[in-house]
Amino acid sequence: MLKLLSWRPSPHKTLTLDPTKPFLSLSRLLSQSLSEDPYEYDPPFSPVSKTPKPKKTKTQDKTPDPKNDPTRPLKSDLPFDFSYSYSETNPAVEPIAFRESPKFSPFGPGRLDRKWTGTVAAVQQEVDLDRVAEERKRVLGDPLAEEEVAELVERYRHSDCARQINMGKGGVTHNMLDDIQNHWKRAEAVRIKCLGVPTLDMDNVCFHLEDKSGGKIIYRHINVLILYRGRNYDPKNRPVIPVMLWKPYPPIYPKLVKNVADGLTFEGTKELRNRGLNSLPLMKLTRNGVYVNVVDRIREAFNTEEVVRLDCTHVGTSDCKRIGVKLRDLVPCIPLLFKDEQIILWRGKRDQKQDPECTDRSKMSADA
Question: Signal sequence: where (predicted)?
Answer without folding.
Answer: none
